[in-house]
Amino acid sequence: xxxxxxxxxxxxxxxxxxxxxxxxxxxxxxxxxxxxxxxxxxxxxxxxxxxxxxxxxxxxxxxxxxxxxxxxxxxxxxxxxxxxxxxxxxxxxxxxxxxxxxxxxxxxxxxxxxxxxxxxxxxxxxxxxxxxxxxxxxxxxxxxxxxxxxxxxxxxxxxxxxxxxxxxxxxxxxxxxxxxxxxxxxxxxxxxxxxxxxxxxxxxxxxxxxxxxxxxxxxxxxxxxxxxxxxxxxxxxxxxxxxxxxxxxxxxxxxxxxxxxxxxxxxxxxxxxxxxxxxxxxxxxxxxxxxxxxxxxxxxxxxxxxxxxxxxxxxxxxxxxxxxxxxxxxxxxxxxxxxxxxxxxxxxxxxxxxxxxxxxxxxxxxxxxxxxxxxxxxxxxxxxxxxxxxxxxxxxxxxxxxxxxxxxxxxxxxxxxxxxxxxxxxxxxxxxxxxxxxxxxxxxxxxxxxxxxxxxxxxxxxxxxxxxxxxxxxxxxxxxxxxxxxxx
Length: 488
Ligand code: ADP
Prior knowledge:
Layout: E1 3-4, E2 8-11, E3 14-17, E4 20-22, E5 25-27, E6 32-36, E7 43-48, H1 52-70, H2 74-90, H3 92-103, H4 107-131, E8 135-139, E9 142-150, E10 154-157, H5 163-176, E11 181-184, H6 191-202, E12 210-212, H7 217-225, E13 232-236, H8 239-252, E14 256-259, E15 265-268, H9 274-282, E16 297-301, H10 305-317, H11 337-352, E17 356-359, E18 373-376, H12 383-386, E19 393-399, H13 402-409, E20 417-421, H14 425-434, E21 439-442, E22 461-462, H15 467-473, E23 475-483, H16 484-487
Parallel strand pairs: 10-11, 10-13, 11-12, 13-14, 15-16, 15-20, 16-19, 18-19, 20-21
Antiparallel strand pairs: 1-5, 2-3, 4-5, 6-7, 8-9, 9-23, 14-22, 17-18
Helix pairs in contact: 1-7, 2-4, 3-4, 3-6, 4-5, 9-10
The structure holds adenosine-5'-diphosphate.
């Protein structure tokens, strides 16, 4: 490893650091890995490929950074988070473009919504820690006071599907709580994190408060989560990886949260606004289905199946597949050829198993696009019903009554999100209460206040993020009890 000014590469006209950021300095690695664009699979940049020594140095820096950062007053910490949010807003276009090139996210969507949401994550937590008062009460002749103590260095491991937004979402509460962080972005989409790292320097974070480690999950990611100096681990990715991380966390008795995707039911009752439901159903193809919250299992009342399907096709036919830089594009390519092959593997196995492919079902030659696909499975046990595909592939099943709708909705090992489409308030409440999911939307989708809890049941995850839930996770919570006499 050598410490210097850091290597930079030009990505679509934006100069992007391609090293690690450790203890406030750019640090290289003897090896690099390449990142390519889903558009044309063009080479974008060669990124430092962290190893055990990188992980060791990053955790050491985070231990030092923790001393400095946790000593900031709440007001100073909040100011630094607001400064970072200001800088993110000022670099909106660059972040949006780099993310679009790196993983294929729609440029307009990034520019209009996701970068701003990233800044808002930091502002929300800056405000939450400022507003928070330690709770104090008198009981049993004592003054009781509950305090949150910063827990220590936190490892934050983020996925490739909405890299910038999901990184800020996980980093903001960790930093707001007073923890230093070691951020390991996904190797398929490392670039927007590099811009964020640079902004933490500009925002005046003390060295080691925010550290960026680039590299491969099984290599430097595994080394980071195994380090006993780490006091929190927060992860978004697959259940398989969560099992590895969970074992490492258990070995060191470290709390971890995991957000692991879903197989969301999209339940349409006969009394629903059918066109609104069908329109939204077609929009589950958004981001080429690379959305953990997506309602991928369409569960439709049997008596409206044909009408719903007709409207669904109408809306799906209108979706424009294209280059994510083009504002006319609705559906971008998948992020990686391996992922395209994985998605197609699910569809091929479904065909072999006798499931009916109602629309789509093929990759589009010469690109990483995959046709928006709808499958009617022969059985609820079909692989396409039970496993997360993370591509533009939905299934369609019918139900006879409310009880069957609920049973089908709850029939997978996942439990992240659910959507219910109905005109009946009482049914919305009944079915909403019966569905096993961390997030249930009725007649809407995706909108969430940042202070509301977020997380999944079953293999969709462990723990809850959002608002105070994430601050509690990142803190060691203390009860201070002082005998009444002392306080008089
Ligand atoms: P996906 O299957 O969607 O690519 P992964 O769970 O493999 O999701 O990856 C999500 C994140 O976890 C990425 O940042 C990846 O580098 C990281 N990762 C993968 N394997 C490990 C591991 N064994 N230890 C720590 N992090 C890992």
